[in-house]
Amino acid sequence: MSASSRTANRYFDPRAFRIGAAAAGLVLLMIVVGSSGLDHFDWALTTYAVASVFAAFSVVYRYAVWAGRPPTRMYLRRGWQAFRSGRGRSGRGARLGIGALGGNAARLGRLLLNNFVLQTFINRRSVERWIMHAGLSWGGMLAFGITFPLVFGWVHFETLATDAEVYRVFVFGFPVDQFHVGSFRGQLFFNLLNISALLVLLGLALSVKLRMHDGGELAVQTFADDVFPLLLLLAVTVTGLMLTVSAKLLSGYGFAFIGLSHAASVIALLLYLPFGKLFHIVQRPLSLGVAFYRHAGENSPRASCMRCGEDFASGAHVADMKEVLDQLGLDYRFETGSGIVHYQDVCPACRRRIVTLNQGAALGR
Amino acid sequence: MTEYEFFIDPSRCIGCEACKQACTECDTHRGRSMIHLEFVDRAVSTQTSPVVCMHCEDPTCARVCPADAIKQTDDGIVQSSIRDRCIGCSNCVLACPFGVPHYVAAIDQMVKCDMCYDRTSIGRKPMCATVCPSQALFYGTREELERLRSETPVNDFRFGNQRVRTKVHLMSSPGADDMDVDVMRFMAGAEPDVRIEELAVWTEDSVAARS
Predict the structure, then answer these.
(1) pLDDT category, B188, cuts 50, 70, 90?
(2) Domain, as residue range, for B9
(3) For residue A360, which residues of chain B lie inside 8 Å, CB to CB?
(4) Residue B70: is its pLDDT beyond 50?
(5) In chain A, is it the N or the C terminus that has fewer CB atoms within a 10 Å radius of its CB?
């Protein structure tokens, strides 16, 4: 095997490829089933649908590669176990006798509300950063929430045979609602994408301000990870808003070109999802597992430092770290006269002291 | 281009905390000090130690990060966690052989020394080294160091069976090639007087080794 093919194999993960291909197949199936055998599929949106299928493959491929790393796999497994077992369940849930899963489901609901909807942890960094992120994430989620069902043919509109000004809304082929085009609800529906674009634009403006003036951001940001995804979002937002401007204010001037530009920018954004910082959208839910794992660790046997005796982590976390280190091929075991000592059994503060003491001893000071 | 390197000599530290204060001024640190400065064993010694990131060539913190939130730049600097990725699991805190990363509960995120990347990436000194009065934290060229110090910098450590090479150097005995970290020698007993006895023993050993 040549060196180049060995390198190529290192970066190709057949298992992740199969999972990614299955995800793409699932999206295709959902398109066919959800649009009643393509009856309600909007063929004008085919490019978006094809890009979505490719994006499903690439995002899931990257996720599968990432989830296969030893520490990630460990957290996914332990987080799920902690969620299901209700280890460490305490307080009101325990007193009320709510089942472990029920108590943890309520906790999951709170975590989802605080960390994903309200994003309160960002507010603790700064209010401006919170507004920026809220604009980008809420605007983005709203836009995706509208676009995907339309592109996949899950949602479609029909006018009444008797009144062309009344729209009927169909979800998976079933009528669920109707409204007059001139009504407030009608205007709201038609402008939801514009509203989401304005939210994203607000987030982008604050983000650009931050990235141009914050010395910390300027030092560590990279074009591929941080700047390019924002440029793509800007392109999507601006071309999307321009479609409305063209239709409403310019009598459709340049509409076809703007539409093409919008499609190109959306497709580029979808295909770039696995590469830049936007991938954190799918990575971030792992933090939910960490919350359950930590909660379980607080209420289970603790690990004491073998040097100073201080409680420094949960026993389970230390044991899991030893396993992860072994899986990574990292061996921090000391073979001593009194047996094997694992550096994981020494707290971080004592490790700092031990290095200093070794240096002092080496210098004879 | 002049090659600046970071050299640490904890034995020179006088515990003034200037480095901790200066560290907060760095743009990438956002008012938070990334330096651990603590007494090595206050009961028996006034020795303090400033601990900054050693910037490992193959950083264990990044290897154990489940979120892939710790990145290494092309110039070998191991960055603090990427904010949108870090899930605050503390794997890195537990795994780092030098005990460097901090977990900050208020922001549910790990932070660590990035050698003042906003400064060092454009040729300036890191804040801590700029203010350190005893030069326990020294940032300069190899020639400057050799002119000023008799000790030898090492960046090759052995923690039990694990070898760790770092970008930052620790000053060691003249002629040393590496540092084989001895953990049992300093696995002091719980009582201060026991530690005093042990300290006396290894001080005598050190004196004997030097003579």
Answers:
(1) low
(2) 5-52+113-210
(3) 10-11, 40, 47, 206
(4) yes
(5) N
Question: How many Cα atoms are found within 13 Å in the side-chain-facing hemisphere of A166?
Answer: 8
**How many CB pairs below 8 A link A and B?**
205
Q: What is the number of structural domains in chain B?
A: 1
The whole-angstrom distance between A273's CA and the closest CA on chain B is 14
| Residues sharing a CB contact under 8 Å with residue A298, sequence separation 6 or more, in sequence order | A88, A314
Residue B200 in domain: yes
CATH number at residue B129: 3.30.70
Main-chain phi, psi angles of A63, to 5 degrees: -65, -40
The rounded distance, in Å, linking the Cα atoms of B177 and B174 is 9
**Which ipTM was obtained for this model?**
0.88
B64:A348 CB<8 A = no
Q: Which of B11, B65, B89 sits opposite A359 (nearest CB)?
A: B11
B131 interfacial to chain A (CB closer than 8 Å): no
Spell out which residues of chain A touch residue B91, defining contact as CB-CB under 8 Å.
71, 321, 324
User: Where do the domains of chain A lie?
Assistant: 3-288, 302-363
Tokens linked to A247: 């239709």
Q: Do B117 and A69 touch (CB under 8 A)?
A: no
| Contacting residues for A358 by C-beta, under 8 A, at least 6 apart | B179, B181, B182, B185, B186
Does residue B108 fall inside a structural domain? no
The half-sphere exposure of A251 on its side-chain side, counting CA atoms within 13 A, is: 0
- Nearest Cα of chain B lies from the Cα of A5 at a distance, in angstroms, of 24
Alpha helices in A97-183, H assignment, sequence order:
100-111, 120-123, 127-151
- Which of A216, A218, A307 faces B30 most closely, judged by CB atoms? A216
The parts of chain A modelled with pLDDT lower than 70 are 1-10, 86-100
Domain-embedded: residue B86: no
Q: Please give the pLDDT value at position B41.
A: 85
Chain A nearest C-alpha distance from B199 (Å): 10
pLDDT in tens, A164-195: 899 999 999 999 999 999 999 999 999 999 99
Distance (Å, whole) CA A117 – CA A112 = 7
Chain B from 59 to 78: CB within 8 A of any A CB = 60, 63-68
